[in-house]
TrEMBL record:
Coiled coil, from the record: none
UniProt family annotation: Belongs to the bacterial solute-binding protein 7 family.
A Pfam short name: DctP
InterPro entries cross-referenced by the UniProt entry: DctP_fam, TRAP_DctP, TRAP_DctP_sf
Record-given protein name: C4-dicarboxylate-binding protein DctP
Keywords, in A-Z order: Signal, Transport
Any single GO BP term: transmembrane transport
Signal peptide coordinates: 1-23
UniProt GO cellular component terms: outer membrane-bounded periplasmic space
Highest taxon above the source species: Bacteria
Natural source organism: Thiothrix caldifontis
Length: 335
């Protein structure tokens, strides 16, 4: 009798404890990224974590790994496809190696006159149709997060296109960016973001291009004497998930995550411009990099030098994709 009671009690305790363990075991989302926490993407990832955990009442735990602590650029894409991480927000310039070259349309020089043009694409049909192209790769496109317009930097003043001649310029893994640097007579060097600071410091490369928030938070400005606010191109993100993981989530959990994504996207896109403006001011205040704002004529000369990149890259990106962007923004830089 005593023994039976003991067995029963043990069974109940075991049963309860395993039930408890089930309820307490959250679904873990590893969210890897390559920038500092104190950037538009870093802040938005942290915001998503807080909102996702709150909206799913703890059923989901989001682990954010910033600054390439888990994976570097190329590896993180492979890790997502293999399911080793569940979410990423790579720059739109990094989808070519995945086989989705159309995203490189965002890298075309001077394609957007500002954030308003950009949002007509990222928040409209063209943006949605581009995200859909990721699905056959096992990748679910969830949203676009803004960063900003790029400055060019190096160890010398950069005013005219000729100033770039022969410079080794670090770029992201985009053929459009490669063509852009070649059009300026520079020598493009594809390199992971995490290795850029050291490459600039040791002179492996001479310069680079980045929105001010990346330049400042990676301390690149400490190893670049000059930066020019060219605003020649855009750098922003697609937030993506492993498709299989996302689609197998319980319905109510996915609903909570969709809400969290929507709110963190609004947040990202609200803070991006201000974060970049602040970072540019901080670079100026540091006194380490001389910031130059080009004159109208200098901007025109850069636009002229870079215009051929649009036609040169039409075959790679798809002329239809480029035209769909021109028509969404109402702006064709060649006209
Ligand atoms: C870069 O490699 O320069 C950027 O894509 C980094 C980032 O994620 O903003």
């Amino acid at each position: 009798m005593k023994k039976t009671l003991l067995t029963l009690t043990t069974a109940v305790v075991l049963g309860l404890s395993s039930m408890y363990a089930y309820a307490a075991d959250p679904i873990v989302i590893k969210f890897s990224h390559v920038v500092a926490p104190d950037t538009p993407k870093g802040k938005a990832a942290d915001k998503f974590k807080a909102l996702a955990e709150e909206k799913t009442k703890g059923a989901v735990k989001v682990e954010v790994y910033p600054n390439s602590t888990l994976y570097k650029d190329k590896e993180e894409m492979e890790a997502l496809q293999m399911g080793a991480v569940q979410m990423l927000a790579p720059s739109l310039a990094k989808f070519g190696p995945l086989g989705v070259k159309e995203f490189e349309v965002f890298d075309l020089p001077y394609i957007f006159r500002g954030y308003d043009d950009l949002h007509k694409v990222t928040q409209g049909e063209v943006g949605a149709s581009l995200l859909a192209k990721l699905e056959p790769k096992g990748v679910k496109g969830l949203a676009y997060w803004d960063n900003g317009f790029k400055v060019m930097s190096a160890g010398k003043p950069l005013k005219a296109p000729e100033d770039y001649k022969g410079l080794k310029m670090r770029i992201q893994s985009s053929k459009v960016l490669e063509a852009q640097m070649r059009a300026l007579g520079a020598n493009p060097q594809v390199m992971p973001f995490s290795e850029t600071y050291q490459a600039l410091q040791t002179g492996v490369v001479d310069g680079t291009e980045n929105p001010p928030s990346n330049l400042f938070t990676q301390k690149m400005h400490e190893v670049q004497k000059n930066a020019t606010v060219t605003n020649h191109g855009y750098l922003g993100y697609a937030v993506i998930a492993n498709k299989d993981f996302w689609e197998k989530l319980p319905e109510d959990v996915r609903k909570g995550l969709d809400e969290a994504m929507k709110e963190s996207t609004d947040f990202a896109n609200q803070i991006a411009k201000e974060e970049n403006d602040k970072a540019l001011e901080a670079v100026k205040a540091s006194g380490k990099t001389e910031i130059y704002t080009p004159t109208e004529d200098e901007t025109k000369a850069m636009q002229k030098a870079l215009a051929p990149v649009h036609t040169e890259m039409a075959e790679r990106i798809g002329k239809d994709v480029i035209d769909s962007v021109y028509s969404a923004t109402g702006f064709d830089p060649s006209k």
